[in-house]
Amino acid sequence: MRRDTDLEATLVAKYAALSPLLNERARRLWAAAESAAIGYGGDAVVSSATGLSRTTIKSGRRELTDGGAPAGRLRRAGAGRPPIESRQPGLTAAAFAVAAIRQWWTTMGRRAYPAATALYITADAGGSNGYRSRAWKAGLQRLADDLRLTIHVSHFPPGTSKWNKIEHQLFCHLTENWRGRTLVTFETLAALVGHTQTATGLRVKAKLDKRGYKTGVVVTPAEMRALAIDPHQFHGDWNYAVRPRAT
User: Fold this and answer.
1) Separation between Cα atoms, residue 106 and residue 7, nearest integer Å
2) pLDDT in tens, the chain (247 residues)
3) Are 204 and 194 in contact (CB under 8 A)?
4) Contacts of residue 116, Cβ cutoff 8 Å, sequence gap at least 6
5) How far apart are alpha carbons 133 and 126 in whole angstroms?
6) DSSP letter at 69?
7) Angle made by CA atoms 65, 67, 71, in degrees to the nearest 5
């Protein structure tokens, strides 16, 4: 099926508008309905536009056909992966994203951009650096205060992280470098990433962060009101600036 960029753009716009209003089951049923309407190759098109896996879309089509999960359930009884928190305790509550930015600025960014007065960060819409995460925003405020830099943030709309051109330009080389290797430890992964380079000048540096991060951190409404965050006029929930507060 020839790629239809206009169709994909329409699906992206639909998904960005609907996704925050839908639960998991409604999202896969909507994706399945769109795929069925497209016909041959619909799963691939919808998957590319939304980031949902083809397996999820196929499951949605089966539910549309046979009635699916009982009302009130997101999955059939016993379906779904075990929560990530049960497999890797503390992972979901650790907001180490800000610590990674601080590490980059301290070791590389400051030397590369000594005259900088601001940072511009693109981030996904969910996870530890999601646009709804209070811990993420509070951490950025502390970083802005410490560095005396204004931090501008733009979140990719739900399902559109594939728009991140930097990831595409980098990860193809990372995966090529570790192809055929067994990634049995974090140390192995960090070493392979850190030795990635290309003939055109790309040089990758990687450092394994072994520090522990507090879990279950609660940011109160009062603390949120004290943050110096300026939402942009266009989708201020996804685009905003964090200003350093007066000392």
Assistant:
1) 43
2) 556 667 777 888 787 777 777 788 888 888 889 888 888 888 888 888 777 788 888 888 888 887 655 555 545 555 554 444 444 333 333 377 898 899 889 888 999 999 999 999 998 887 778 888 889 999 999 999 999 999 999 998 877 766 777 777 787 888 887 777 777 778 888 888 888 888 888 888 887 777 777 767 788 889 999 999 999 999 999 999 999 998 7
3) yes
4) 109, 110, 149
5) 8
6) S
7) 150
Backbone angles phi, psi at 241, to 5 degrees: -120, 140
pTM over 0.70: no
Task: Give CA–CA dist 34/38, Å, rounded.
Answer: 6
The residue extents of the domains of the chain are 5-80, 97-242
Contacts of 144 (CB under 8 A, 6+ apart): 150, 151, 228, 242, 243, 244, 245
Beta bridge partners of 229: 242
Looking up tokens 């400051």 gives 110
Beta sheet of 150-155, edge-to-edge order: 118-123, 150-155, 239-242, 229-231
Name 214's Cβ contacts closer than 8 Å, sequence gap at least 6: 93, 94
Cα separation values, 131 from 156, 205, 230, 237, 241, Å: 9, 27, 14, 7, 12
The answer to whether the beta carbons of residues 25 and 75 sit under 8 Å apart is yes
What is the three-class DSSP state of 63? Answer: helix
